[in-house]
Each structure stands twice: as C-alpha cells, then as structure tokens.
C-alpha cells in the first residue's frame, strides 16, 4: 500500500506540488524509524566489541568462573558471583512481588469502589514513576538498619534452625545483602507490575465477567475461572516484563547489595549484581577490568533482552487475540 | 470446569455455599491487605523522603555549588547540569521519536518492517538503562577520551526515544482515517496531511508522551554515571564532565559525611517532586478516551 502511494507521487514527478515535501518528510520518517532498529543492533555490537578482550583472555569459562580480583598481581575476572546475585535478588523480588501485585490488581479491578479506583490507580502510576535511586536511598537508610536490628536476627533464630532451608539464613546480620536488595527490588517493581496487570485484566470483556457474577459466582470464582484464564498470556507477560526490569535495575540495589564477589549459600550475606558492579567500578576501570565489566554488561543484555522479548511477544499475542 | 461443578452443587448444598463464601472472604481479605500493605510501604518511602529532605531545603541550595565534606554548600551545579543534560536529551529525542512513530503509522502501517520496528522499540522501552550507559561510553566517551555533558545527553536521549516513538504511534493510531481522507480529497500532499491533520488531532497525546519522557529521564542515574560523570563546580560547557542531580545524590548518599547525606536527601526530594509534578501535568494533557 505504502509502495503504491509513493510510486504514484514519484510518477507525477515535479508536477505534483508536494513532491519535495513528501520526499524529505517521508525520507526522514523512514530513516529515523530504521534508526530505532539500528540502535538495538549497535548496542549489541558495541558490547561484543568491548567484551571481546575479556572473552579472549578467559574463554567462555568467564561465565562460570567465581573470581573478581582487580589487584594487578593476581588479576582474574569471572562473572559467576554477579550473575548469581542478579538472579537471586530478582527471584526474591518476584516471589514477593507476584502475589502482592496480583492482590492489588484484583482489588483494583474487582473490589474497589469507583470513587477510590481513580485515586489508587493514579497513586500506582505515580509510584511507578519515582526514580529508582530514591528506593535505593530508602533501602540504605531505613530498610538496612531495620533488617540488621530486627528482621535478620529473627530469621536466623527461627527459619535458620530448620535443617535444609536454614542454610539460606545463616551468618551475622549485616543488614545489607542479597535479601535486602531483593526486598528493595520487589518494592520497586511492585507499582510497575500492578499497572501492567490492571491493564491486562481490563481487556477481559465486561459481559464475560458479568455473566459469571450473574450465575452467582463469587469474586474469587470470577477471578479464578474467568479473568485469569482469559488474560493468562498477558499476566505472564506482565510478570516477565517486571522480571526484565528487576534483572537490570541498578540504583535500587547498588547501595544495599554489599559488593562481595563470593558466593555464599546464605541470602543474608553480602553479594554482587551485574548492574551494581558496573555502577561501582566502571568509571574508574581500564584494561582487562573494563573489558570484563563490558562482558558482564553483555551477559546482562542477553539476559534482560531475552526475558523482555518473550514478555513482549506474549503481550502482543494478547493484544492481537482480543484487541 | 471448577465453576460449573461448584455452582451446580452450590444451589442445593448449604455447606458448599458456606465454603465458597469463606474462600471468597479470605481472598478479599488478602487482596485488600496487599493493597493496604503496598500503599503503606510506598507512602512510608515518600514520607521519609520528605521528612529528611525538607530540613535542608533552602535558598542556598540553588545558589551554592556542591561542597567538599564539612563545609556549607548547595546543589547549584547539579541542578544546572541536570537541566542542561535533560533538556538537550529531550531536544534530540523528540523530533527523531515523533518522525519514527509517524513512519510506523502513516507510512508503514501493516508492513513487516514496521511490525519489527514496533517490536524492537517496545523492547527498548524496557531495556535496562545501565546498558544504554555502557553503549554511550563505548561509542562516545571512549573514542573521544573524555566524559562530557553531551555523552550524558545522548544517553538520556536514547532512553527517551522509545517512549516518544511508542506514544506517538499510539496517538496517531487513534486519528480517524476519515480526517486524513478529507484532507487528501482537498488535494493536500501526504506530508501536509500528516503535519496539519494527523499531528493536530494527536497533539495532546504526543505532548503527554514527551512530558512523560522528560519525567523518566530526569530521574535516571545509571546511564549518567559513566557518561556525564560529575563536576564539583558549575559549568555550562557540555563538552566537559557535568554534575547532575541523580549522580550527586548517588555520590553523596553513599558517603559517610552527614552534611553530604543531608544534601543528597534535599536533592532526592527536589527530583522526586519534579518528576511527580511532571507526571501529573503530563496526564492532565492526555486525551480522555485513553483507558
């Protein structure tokens, strides 16, 4: 269709009064649209080029080596510890975030009286817009001391005594560590998840919902048997989008993760995430350290973009299915 | 499946009805509880921020530069830097984003390439901003051998761009084809139809998109850490390293000096409320038909 329109304009040549404007405007639009495409490829290429020296030095073993030592005499880098920290903190964020955001989304779409709906929805949107460094500061100055004084000792004293699961809650209460970072992340992705999930729930046609209520179904039965099956793809898409966000989030975790490159079973222990390592070390790094950090960045890129890609495909499917 | 079973039995069996009601009450309770907990947590964060930041808020904050530890100072250099870097960032992203969004709807609607660009753009919207920072370091800072305000502005432009593309595309899609056809029938060339008819019809929504992009990038820290870096004194030279509010907050909050931490809280308060006000203003422009 586009082709024919442009061809028609061209065939008239200079005779059509708007041909030059069409050429310039349409050309610029096309070039800038392609720029978006090129940008993604360029990001990937730039990261690969930057990461190449590290991969040449260490091979693919870089990915599963637990080492991070910038000391020139024993210089050695490996991605395992930051990779582990990234996955563990995001996992904690999702475990807490998913049920809570589901609860809030159900409240907003099914239970909330109309006069509160607008206010709470706006509050959620605004909270999703609060810069992530604010969450990071709150984590450092409020949550970390609370964790150290009350929550972590309580966890060590109770869950920490259970044989197998207890291994996750061992060691001194530092206050900062993987668990604290995961908690901050869950607070940060919460409004984001709620906002997408509410949109997804609203794609369910009111007729379906009302028919179920009309048959005498309770709120929970409507959610479980009508809303969730109908919007399943979108709900999973929303969770994965939030996961993508949690994996790459930097400022909320950098203050509280602890920057330790040793993998410990306990989630109370300090750790590292890819994003926090980049924020802490990149500006002062050079040589092999710089390249290793870029290699970390490349791994983060692969991780987040595959998660986001799948999430977007799922949300697109929902859109196409139900428009 | 479950629904049919429970409803059929539920009409006759009082114990089933009781059980269904009980389950429903528990779920309702949990759902309200989640909402209260979520809102409480987030109110707590904002209240604490206000409480800590408001004490340091004063006129000298806007007049003095960031101090060495132990002496009085403000955030003037960071505020100027943030305005410049954010301003140039949005100036770069807006025309590119609007034209790219225009292509997706007005030229490429339904084509394969437009579909792919849309998908890639949606991925870029949720891309981690620190990766954008790495990219700009690799392509701008490293070849030129120094950090600069321009590098920061380019990084922020890359974050704003996909947001603007997305909203432009959404808003142009809402413009009815009948409007475009009427303009064509009057003999207007395509580019004039787009500028005079489509843009005018979608103007409010596009403005919302740009304002939301400004709000988003003005709080971004990660991509500025290794592009704009920081600068202890006021500067309007975009070719030199430049202090910005988020980076100064990051540096000062993590430092062990009480006066630096106080400045960080004041900066955090400033930036959060600017972002929230921008969001409210942006949403007030949004067309009512949305949602």
What does this 3D model show about the protein?
The complex is a heterodimer of chains A (323) and B (291). Chain A has 323 residues and is mainly alpha-helical. Chain A has 11 helices and 2 strands; from the N terminus they run ααββααααααααα. Chain A has helices at residues 2-12, 19-58, 80-111, 114-129, 132-157, 178-201, 206-214, 219-248, 251-254, 274-281, 287-322, and strands at 68-69, 76-77. A two-stranded antiparallel ribbon of chain A has the order 1-2. Chain A starts with a helix and ends with a helix. Chain B is mostly helical and 291 residues long. Chain B has 12 helices and no strands. Chain B has helices spanning 2-12, 14-54, 60-63, 76-107, 112-125, 129-144, 149-173, 177-185, 190-218, 222-225, 245-253, 258-285. In chain B, helix 4 packs parallel to helix 7 (149-173). The longest helix of chain B is centred in the N-terminal third of the chain and has 41 residues, at 14-54. Chain B is flat. The chains are: A mainly alpha (323), B mainly alpha (291). At the A-B interface, helix 1, helix 2, helix 3, helix 4 and helix 5 of A face helix 1, helix 2, helix 4, helix 5 and helix 6 of B.
Average pLDDT of chain B: 90
CA distance, first residue to last residue of chain B? 32 Å
| Helicity of chain A, as a percent range | over 70%
What is the 3D form of chain B?
flat
Oligomer: heterodimer
| Beta-strand segment tally of chain A | 2
Which parts of chain A are unreliable, with pLDDT below 50 for 5 consecutive residues or more? 1-14
Radius of gyration of chain B: 25 Å
Instruction: Report the radius of gyration of chain A as a whole number of Å.
Output: 25 Å
What is the average of the pLDDT values of chain A?
A: 90
Task: Based on Cα principal axes, name the global outline of chain A.
Answer: flat
Largest sheet of chain B: none
Contiguous low-pLDDT stretches of chain B (5 residues minimum) are: none
Number of helices of chain A: 11
Measured distance between first and last alpha carbons of chain A: 23 Å
Spatial order of the strands in the main sheet of chain A?
1-2
Task: Give the SSE string of chain B.
Answer: HHHHHHHHHHHH
């Amino acid at each position: 269709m586009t082709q024919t329109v442009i061809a028609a304009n061209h065939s008239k040549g200079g005779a059509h009064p708007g041909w030059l404007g069409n050429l310039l405007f349409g050309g610029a639009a096309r070039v800038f649209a392609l720029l978006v495409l090129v940008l993604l490829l360029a990001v990937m290429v730039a990261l690969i080029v930057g990461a190449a020296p590290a991969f040449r030095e260490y091979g693919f073993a870089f990915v599963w080596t637990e080492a991070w030592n910038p000391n020139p005499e024993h210089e050695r880098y490996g991605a395992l510890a930051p990779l582990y920290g990234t996955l563990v903190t995001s996992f904690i964020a999702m475990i807490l975030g998913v049920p809570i955001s589901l609860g809030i989304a159900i409240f907003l779409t099914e239970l909330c009286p109309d006069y509160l709906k607008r206010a709470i929805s706006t509050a959620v949107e605004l909270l999703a817009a609060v810069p992530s460094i604010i969450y990071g500061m709150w984590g450092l100055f409020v949550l970390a001391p609370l964790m150290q004084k009350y929550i972590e000792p309580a966890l060590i004293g109770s869950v920490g005594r259970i044989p197998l699961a207890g291994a996750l809650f061992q060691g001194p209460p530092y206050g900062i560590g993987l668990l604290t970072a995961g908690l901050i992340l869950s607070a940060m992705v919460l409004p984001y998840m709620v906002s997408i999930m509410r949109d997804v729930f609203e794609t369910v046609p009111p007729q379906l919902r009302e028919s179920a209520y009309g048959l005498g179904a309770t709120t929970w039965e409507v959610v479980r048997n009508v809303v969730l099956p109908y919007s399943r793809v979108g709900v999973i898409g929303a969770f994965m989008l939030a996961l993508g966000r949690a994996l790459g989030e930097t400022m909320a975790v950098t203050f509280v993760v602890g920057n330790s490159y040793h993998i410990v079973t306990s989630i109370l222990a300090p750790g590292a995430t890819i994003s926090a390592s980049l924020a802490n070390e990149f500006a002062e790094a050079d040589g092999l350290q710089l390249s290793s950090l870029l290699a970390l960045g490349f791994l983060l890129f692969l991780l987040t973009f595959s998660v986001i890609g799948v999430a977007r495909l799922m949300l697109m499917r929902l859109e196409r299915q139900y428009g | 499946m479950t629904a049919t079973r429970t409803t059929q039995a539920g009409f006759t069996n009082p114990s089933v009805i009781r059980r269904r009601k009980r389950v429903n009450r528990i779920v309702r309770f949990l759902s309200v509880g989640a909402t209260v907990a979520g809102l409480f947590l987030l109110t707590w964060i904002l209240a604490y921020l206000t409480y800590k930041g408001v004490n340091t808020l004063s006129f000298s904050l806007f007049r003095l530069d960031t101090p060495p530890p132990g002496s009085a100072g403000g955030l003037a250099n960071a505020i100027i830097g943030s305005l410049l870097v954010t301003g140039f960032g949005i100036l770069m992203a807006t025309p590119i984003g609007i034209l790219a969004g225009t292509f997706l709807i007005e030229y490429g609607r339904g084509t394969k390439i437009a579909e792919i660009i849309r998908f890639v753009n949606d991925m870029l919207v949720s891309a981690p901003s620190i990766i954008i920072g790495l990219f700009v370091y690799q392509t701008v800072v490293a070849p030129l051998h120094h950090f600069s305000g321009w590098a920061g502005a380019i990084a922020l432009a890359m974050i704003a761009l996909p947001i603007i593309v997305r909203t432009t595309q959404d808003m142009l899609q809402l413009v009815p084809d009948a409007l475009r056809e009427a303009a064509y029938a009057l003999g207007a060339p395509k580019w004039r139809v787009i500028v005079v008819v489509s843009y005018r019809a979608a103007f409010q929504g596009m403005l919302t998109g740009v304002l939301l992009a400004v709000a988003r990038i003005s709080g971004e820290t990660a991509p500025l850490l290794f592009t704009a870096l920081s600068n202890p004194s006021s500067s309007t030279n975009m070719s030199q390293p430049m202090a910005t509010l988020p980076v100064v907050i990051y540096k000062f909050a993590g430092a062990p000096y009480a006066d630096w931490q106080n400045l960080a809280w004041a900066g955090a308060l400033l930036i959060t409320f600017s972002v929230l006000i921008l969001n409210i203003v942006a949403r007030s422009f949004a067309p009512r038909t949305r949602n």
